[in-house]
Design brief:
By secondary structure, the chain is α/β, with parallel strands linked by helices. It is 63% helix and 10% strand. 37% of the residues are buried. It binds adenosine-5'-diphosphate and magnesium ion.
């Protein structure tokens, strides 16, 4: 079933491109001040660029024409100073813009991450993790250049074109019109090409997403694949996806590449037109040589920005589908929402009570029926039981990823459906086998736990969970860039980072749902110690396959058949010789 979902293209609604664009650029508005500064810098540099041809015209027609050596040198110095100044300003502007677009990306990614956490698990049930990751990582990254160029290319180039048109027409109407004569031809060409290419880029992104999903599943399930000797079959599937991916790229890029040549041809035609008219006008004495040379510069200043704009447009068409996919997730409504008049859950101690809780998924029979228990603040509860018994269901109900059908769950006496989800989940740390790592530094990844955490708090958290030492052994310590999805780190190391992230958020209630089941033996000991620190002083629910990891729990609940069959400490339960004893012996024999 999962394999099938990988091969399936995702359906993306054909919302209007303009809406998506406006929404994307609205993020930039949060950086108004910087952007205004960038625009001022650009206005200055554009002005210098526009003045340059006038300097040359003056040099040729006035100073050289009159053999005025001193005047020429003075003019030269003015030109050089202006242009050096311009280069410095361009550097500054590029730095500012890169920073803004990076900040926007981080914002979008945080929004996505936070939103995905509110979506409830039904969202994850219906799509492969790889596809979700593809949106978090690739689609967000693809917006980087679009955002930066929207300010540094779009606005100044549009302004430059307008200014050049005004100057050219003011200087000489006939030459000006000749310089722009190929515009209608260009319009037709560009329209044709763009029409073809948007659809193709959309297809390409879908194929990329399919491949990501496949790789993610395949890599995380590698052991299973190998143990079932299914390598050949998976290999064939991969080849197939790869070919589809490649073909769709090939197809899309063919049209995208056509923008440049269309404009190049028009540019060439317009230049020929302009020089022809120019030579005729010089013959008639209407124009001087310097002016024609200046027009040679202006025609480039008119067509080059057009070329830039078309490249930008191309980039937009290529990447806008990434934005569409991001907004689609952001627009998926949370299934569980705050009740009318929900209150903030005050700072909790961590007492958890289930009172006669019954729950079932959809139309299925009860997974839990009439479950009641009470957990004291600071207690560690281990949940054990066969697969499908309802262990995850219990913790998912506690964090309100689903709502109970009858009974009540309370934290410190507050029924959880009467408080805001934000105030509830912000006091809980939930860790599963899946932990998202983002491209960004180690420090940034830990900070996702609590955005206002200081650097010291981050280091402290990492130390507490035993992650500090391995982080320091990385090339740049806390500033090491994490590659896509944490490639280059072992599963255990990734887990340690996720622990540190949870630790930074200082949750009162901690949920570990099989968080340690795929850890390599190398880091197991470290992780084990990290967990011990995390558990200290917190209410915790630990679900683990390996019974050895839960020996120290205050109480163990054996879950099966819709409820708690046995509970007690490990020693008590072994002495009981009941279900836990059976589970224990079964694992011991393995
Ligand atoms: N999202 C879901 N939709 C429908 N049924 C589900 C869903 N999640 C779990 N179940 C079913 O609920 C039962 C308990 O699942 P779960 O709590 O995940 O068990 P455990 O964590 O103990 O392995 C299982 O029969 C499982 O098939
Ligand atoms: Mg489970």
């Amino acid at each position: 079933m999962a394999r099938n979902a990988t091969k399936q293209d995702e359906q993306i609604s054909d919302k209007t491109k303009r809406e998506t664009l406006l929404r994307l650029f609205r993020y930039l508005l949060q950086y108004k001040k910087t952007i205004v500064l960038v625009l001022v810098l650009m206005a200055f540099t554009t002005a210098v660029a526009l003045i340059n041809p006038l300097l040359i015209e003056r040099a040729i027609d006035v100073h050289i024409g009159n053999r005025d050596k001193e005047g020429l040198i003075r003019l030269g110095i003015v030109g050089i100073v202006l242009n050096i100044f311009m280069i410095l300003l361009i550097k500054w502007r590029m730095y500012l813009m890169a920073k803004v677009s990076n900040d926007v990306l981080v914002k979008i990614r945080q929004e996505l991450y936070e939103h995905i956490q509110t979506l409830g698990f039904a969202f994850f049930d219906s799509r492969p993790t790889g596809k979700i990751l593809a949106r978090l990582m690739g689609d967000v990254n693809s917006l980087k250049d679009v955002l930066a160029n929207s300010v540094t290319t779009f606005i100044p180039d549009a302004v430059t074109i307008l200014a050049v048109v005004v100057i050219m027409i003011a200087k000489n109407v006939k030459l000006g019109l000749a310089s722009m004569s190929a515009i209608p031809l260009m319009a037709v060409g560009v329209w044709y090409v763009q029409n073809k290419s948007h659809k193709r880029w959309q297809i390409f992104r879908k194929k990329t997403s399919n491949m990501n999903a496949f790789l993610h599943e395949d890599v995380s399930g590698m052991r299973i694949i190998q143990s079932f000797h299914a390598e050949d079959e998976t290999g064939a599937t991969f080849d197939d996806l790869l070919k589809q991916h490649y073909d769709s790229f090939d197809d899309a890029v063919r049209y995208a590449d056509a923008f440049g040549p269309v404009i190049d041809i028009c540019w060439g035609l317009a230049a020929m037109m302009m020089y022809w008219v120019g030579v005729v006008l010089i013959g008639k004495g209407e124009v001087q040589v310097g002016a024609l040379i200046a027009f040679g510069s202006y025609i480039a200043m008119f067509w080059q920005p057009l070329m830039n704009l078309s490249n930008f447009y191309n980039q937009l068409v290529t990447n806008i589908t990434g934005a569409e996919r991001i907004f689609e997730i952001l627009d998926t409504p949370a299934e569980i929402t705050d009740a009318e008049g929900a209150k903030e859950l005050p700072k909790i101690k961590g007492r958890v009570t289930f009172e006669h809780v019954s729950f079932h998924y959809d139309e299925d029979p009860d997974v839990l029926s009439d479950v009641s228990f009470e957990v004291e603040p600071g207690e560690t509860i281990a949940l054990v039981g066969p697969t499908g018994a309802g262990k995850s269901t219990i913790v998912n109900l506690l964090s309100r990823f689903y709502d109970v059908q009858s009974g009540e769950i309370c934290i410190d006496g507050h029924p959880i459906h009467e408080v805001t989800i934000e105030s509830l989940r912000s006091q809980m740390g939930i860790m599963t086998q899946e932990n998202f790592l983002f491209s960004g530094t180690v420090k940034e990844n830990i900070r996702y736990g609590r955005l206002d955490a200081t650097d010291e708090e981050i280091v402290e958290a990492a130390k507490a969970v035993n992650a500090h030492e391995f982080i320091m052994s990385l090339e740049k310590g806390y500033d090491t860039e994490i590659k896509e999805r944490g490639a280059g780190l072992s599963i255990g190391q990734r887990q340690l980072l996720a622990f540190a992230r949870t630790m930074v958020s200082q949750p009162r209630i901690l949920i570990l749902d099989e968080a340690t089941s795929s850890i390599d033996t190398h880091t197991e000991l470290l992780v084990q110690k990290g967990i011990e620190t995390m558990l200290r002083g917190r209410t915790a629910f630990v679900i683990a396959h390996r019974l050895s990891t839960i020996q120290n729990a205050d109480r163990i609940f054996v879950i099966d058949k819709g409820g708690i069959l046995e509970q007690g400490s490990a020693r008590e339960l072994l002495a009981l010789k009941g279900e836990y004893y059976k589970l224990y012996m079964a694992q011991f024999e393995e």
